[in-house]
């Protein structure tokens, strides 16, 4: 009878099952999670039999989400497509949610793009997919698109949006969303408030987080804990403790996360007594051996050196996870108790917990810091492999900073080769970085070539290897090869390449690469900004600089104090002082570097009064100038002819207790050279000797020699030259030109021979000095010899200046036929300086015909230069051609060309006096005249024959000296 009843029941159930529709059967299976059975039914029956629709599939998709049956969900989705069912909006949203939970962003995006209609749930699904996957930028872009389409967020979406702002650390966008929350009336939603506080803390705006916390009427444990974590992460330990006390006096009781958050504070504050009190409170609250609290306690006691306490807690923690094990292992490693660490590592595996990369991080850095040799570290790696950690799972970059010898790299390379690890892209990448550290680019290239399938990290390492070692051409070629290999460069790729180009001074290529980076639509990170700062400072093209500034403003890159200062320097270089001032005034906070930048921009562009006023404002703001500030002023005054002011500031900075550096000295010396004030130059020379700057700084010594040369003191210049421990081409050129200018051609040529004997190759400037010396010394054959040797012997192609020197040489010698043939045959277009040299030679030799030939070309090139007319007029006057003199005078009057009055200067008592014929009433003229008479007497005694002549315009007399 019992058997009959069971049979009857089965028959009834079977009848009832067949009576049910397929939709009801699938729904029932979905509710029970029997998805495989549902899929078998779908496979057995075509759509025409089942007559399925969106409502039929919806329970199945929801069940896949609920039971995390993603494989089954994907198969059900394929059946929907194959059956030809057009899913409605609800089904599409759920399919998208399935892929989002599955972590498949590609399919989630594809579903979203295929939707003809979207609602708030659709946008929430796509934003949540990207926010939860860590792509905060993409998530926030979808939020902005949603707002543009007129859809408002709800209390489920806002937390996701705040999470995106946190991921981007975009405080400005977070505040906009906060305003949107208030406008839409969700400010009292506790879940949103907690997300808001979390966003502010992660964007490092504790003030805003505190305000949001204080304005919250009702707080739960998440509110308190979020604020607590914010204080701890930002290093505000005392504030975190105060907040924890307030929480204890509220109705909210601390949970596991609260204790885990507060415990690290005690390690920082070194408060063991208070830490033990919190430990006791955690035990009383029932969390003493919770895995999260226990892990925090182990770490805290380890930091206090109490490994015994830590191990006691560790052994009693329930359900220890890998983080807890790693924390205890790290504690032993920090105390260099490596045997205990390895024992724990073995015990960890026995308990079924597999070590991970963090386990490596806990041991290897401590091991390397203990100054163990590479072989000892390799033995350690062997031990780690025995407990289940393969080397390709370990971040080898940890070893980079601890390896300090190329031999260690080679030992590691050999070990990796024997173990067959180098074929792994990650391992190869780390090894390439190590070789790059020691500039072994060929070894790095060999490793790169051995990799079959090269991943992005490997490409980045080899590009960085060449960029960091100044082989930017090869780095650029590799970058192109990476693109051709369909590897999309990331920000690290671009940053490395741009940085390398900047380091070698290839700023144009660096700007070009940055322009390409901009079109990739990748957001700049702080590293990119740091890379660009040296480039910004060196830009000298106003248009390029403004474009770069606009890019920063348009893309809302952080205009930090450092970035603003770089742009101020840039605008100063581009002579856009108004922009520099405007940017400086817009800065909220200004430091000494910012003030120095604007003062330097003003001074270098000739706004000297404004620079002084700004310097005074800086001091009024409580910021004292440093040597850079004073050097900017000294240099600015010197560059713009304010020699006395430059020297005055040089003395003032010393009175301020500052010590001039090499740059300051190099800035003041040209001022002495420009004014030919030898006494000041000697004072600077004495200061250099007394201050201990020494003769090692070639930049300063070359400037010092140049000053003595221009002041006519070759003895001092030669004295400095002889004391140099090393000499560069500038040192030699200065001496060669100096002796040549002062008529000591043979001495100049002997310096040239000595330079060649010491293995220094001449440059184009050297030959200008040599040819000028030959010209002043009348050494025509030697001049031809040196000119002809330039390209054939030294590879220096003669420029316009060299041809001008040869014209001057031949003209001074009176070889005008050779001059004419030389000019006709020269491959370059004659310059004004060349015709000027020929005209001067014609004056010396009174060659009127050649003078007219030279002057005709010269006046075409410089029609407004009165000096050319005066020289030709004097030549005419010397030849007695007064009608031509009158004709030239009329041409000058008709063209509005005025002859500047001739003037001279003389140094008397460390002061420079300039004078002309019109200065007869000058109160210092009597002393000036007496000094000139003394000079004339000395000249006669030295064998010179002073001549007094009136120029053809009759404006003033000239003292002509002839040898």
From TrEMBL:
Which GO BP terms, alphabetically? RNA modification
Task: Give one GO term, molecular function aspect.
Answer: RNA binding
At which residues are the PPR repeats? 53-87, 119-153, 220-254, 321-355, 455-489, 490-526, 591-625, 626-660, 697-727, 728-762
Keyword annotations from UniProtKB, A to Z: Repeat
The yes or no answer to whether the keyword Nuclease is present is no
Which domain of life does the protein's organism represent?
Eukaryota
Q: Which Pfam families match?
A: E_motif, PPR, PPR_2
NCBIfam families given for it? PPR (TIGR00756)
User: What protein is this chain from?
Assistant: Pentatricopeptide repeat
Instruction: Look up and give the organism this protein is from.
Output: Macleaya cordata (Five-seeded plume-poppy)
């Amino acid at each position: 009878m019992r058997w009959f009843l069971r049979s009857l029941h089965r028959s009834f159930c079977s009848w009832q099952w067949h009576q049910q529709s397929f939709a009801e059967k699938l729904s029932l299976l979905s509710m029970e999670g029997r998805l495989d059975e549902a899929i078998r039914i779908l496979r057995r029956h075509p759509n025409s039999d089942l007559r399925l629709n969106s409502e039929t599939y919806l329970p199945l998709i929801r069940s896949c989400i609920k039971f995390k049956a993603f494989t089954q969900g994907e198969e059900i989705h394929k059946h929907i497509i194959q059956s030809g069912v057009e899913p409605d909006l609800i089904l599409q949203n759920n399919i998208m949610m399935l892929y989002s939970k599955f972590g498949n962003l590609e399919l989630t995006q594809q579903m979203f793009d295929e939707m003809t209609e979207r609602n708030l749930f659709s946008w929430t699904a796509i934003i949540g997919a990207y926010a939860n996957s860590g792509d905060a930028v993409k998530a926030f872009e979808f939020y902005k698109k949603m707002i543009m389409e007129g859809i408002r967020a709800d209390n489920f979406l806002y937390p996701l949006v705040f999470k995106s702002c946190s991921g981007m650390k975009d405080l400005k966008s977070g505040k906009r969303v906060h305003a949107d929350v208030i406008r839409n009336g969700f400010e009292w939603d506790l879940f949103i408030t907690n997300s808001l506080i979390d966003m502010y803390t992660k964007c490092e705006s504790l003030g805003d987080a505190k305000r949001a916390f204080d304005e919250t009427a009702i707080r739960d444990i998440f509110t308190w804990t979020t604020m607590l974590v914010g204080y701890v992460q930002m290093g505000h330990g005392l504030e975190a403790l105060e907040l924890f006390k307030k929480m204890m006096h509220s109705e909210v009781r601390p949970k596991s996360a609260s204790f885990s958050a507060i415990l690290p504070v005690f390690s920082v504050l070194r408060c063991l007594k208070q830490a033990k009190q919190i430990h006791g409170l955690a035990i009383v609250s029932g969390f003493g051996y919770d895995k999260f609290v226990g892990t925090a306690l182990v770490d805290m006691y380890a930091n206090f050196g109490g490994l015994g306490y830590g191990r006691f807690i560790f052994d009693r923690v329930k359900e220890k996870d890998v983080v807890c094990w790693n924390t205890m292992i790290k504690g032993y490693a920090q105390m260099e108790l490596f045997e205990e660490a390895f024992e724990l590592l073995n015990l960890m595996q026995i308990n079924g917990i597999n070590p991970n990369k963090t386990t490596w991080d806990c041991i290897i850095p401590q091991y390397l810091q203990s100054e163990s040799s590479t072989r000892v570290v390799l033995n350690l790696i062997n031990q780690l492999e025995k407990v289940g950690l393969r080397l390709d799972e370990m971040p080898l970059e940890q070893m980079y900073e601890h390896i300090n010898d190329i031999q260690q790299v080679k030992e590691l390379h050999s070990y990796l080769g024997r173990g067959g690890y180098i074929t792994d892209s990650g391992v190869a990448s780390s090894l390439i970085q190590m070789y790059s550290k020691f500039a072994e680019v060929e070894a790095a290239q060999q490793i790169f070539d051995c990799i079959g399938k090269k991943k992005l990290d490997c490409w980045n390492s080899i590009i960085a290897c060449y960029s960091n070692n100044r082989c930017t051409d090869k780095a650029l070629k590799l970058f192109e090869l990476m693109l051709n290999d369909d590897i999309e460069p990331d920000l690290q790729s671009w940053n490395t390449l741009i940085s390398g180009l900047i380091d070698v001074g290839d700023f144009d290529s660096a700007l070009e690469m940055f322009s390409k980076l901009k079109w990739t639509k990748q957001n700049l990170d702080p590293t990119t900004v740091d890379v660009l700062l040296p480039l910004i400072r060196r830009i000298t093209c106003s248009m390029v600089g403004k474009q770069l500034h606009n890019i920063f403003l348009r893309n809302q890159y952080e205009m930090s104090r450092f970035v603003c200062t770089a742009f101020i320097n840039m605008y100063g270089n581009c002579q856009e002082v108004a922009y520099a001032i405007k940017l400086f005034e817009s800065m909220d906070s200004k430091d000494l570097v910012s003030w120095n930048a604007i003062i330097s921009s003003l001074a270098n562009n000739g706004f000297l009064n404004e620079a002084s006023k700004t310097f005074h404002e800086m001091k009024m703001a409580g910021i004292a100038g440093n040597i850079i500030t004073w050097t900017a002023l000294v240099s600015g005054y010197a560059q713009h002819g304010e020699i006395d002011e430059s020297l005055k500031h040089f003395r003032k900075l010393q009175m301020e207790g500052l010590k001039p550096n090499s740059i300051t000295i190099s800035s003041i010396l040209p001022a002495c050279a420009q004014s030919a004030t030898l006494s000041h130059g000697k004072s600077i020379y004495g200061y250099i000797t007394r201050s201990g700057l020494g003769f090692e700084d070639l930049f300063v010594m070359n400037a010092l020699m140049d000053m003595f040369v221009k002041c006519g003191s070759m003895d001092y210049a030669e004295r400095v030259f002889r004391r140099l421990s090393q000499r560069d081409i500038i040192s030699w050129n200065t001496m060669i030109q100096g002796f040549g200018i002062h008529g000591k051609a043979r001495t100049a040529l002997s310096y040239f021979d000595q330079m060649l004997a010491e293995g220094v190759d001449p440059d184009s400037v050297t030959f200008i000095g040599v040819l000028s010396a030959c010209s002043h010394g009348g050494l025509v054959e030697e001049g031809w010899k040196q000119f002809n040797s330039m390209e054939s012997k030294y590879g220096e192609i003669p420029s316009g200046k060299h041809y001008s020197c040869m014209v001057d040489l031949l003209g001074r010698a009176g070889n005008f036929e050779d001059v004419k043939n030389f000019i006709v045959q020269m491959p370059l277009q004659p310059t004004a300086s060349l015709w000027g040299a020929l005209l001067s030679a014609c004056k010396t030799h009174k060659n009127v015909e050649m003078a007219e030939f030279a002057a005709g070309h010269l006046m075409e090139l410089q029609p407004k230069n009165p000096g050319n007319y005066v020289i030709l007029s004097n030549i005419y006057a010397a030849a007695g051609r007064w009608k031509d003199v009158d004709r030239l005078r009329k041409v000058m009057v008709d063209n509005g060309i005025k002859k500047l009055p001739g003037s001279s200067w003389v140094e008397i008592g460390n002061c420079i006096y300039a004078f002309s014929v019109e200065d007869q009433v000058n109160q210092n003229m009597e002393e000036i005249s007496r000094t000139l008479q003394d000079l004339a007497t000395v000249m006669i005694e030295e064998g010179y024959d002073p001549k007094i002549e009136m120029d053809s315009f009759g404006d003033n007399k000239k003292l002509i000296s002839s040898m």
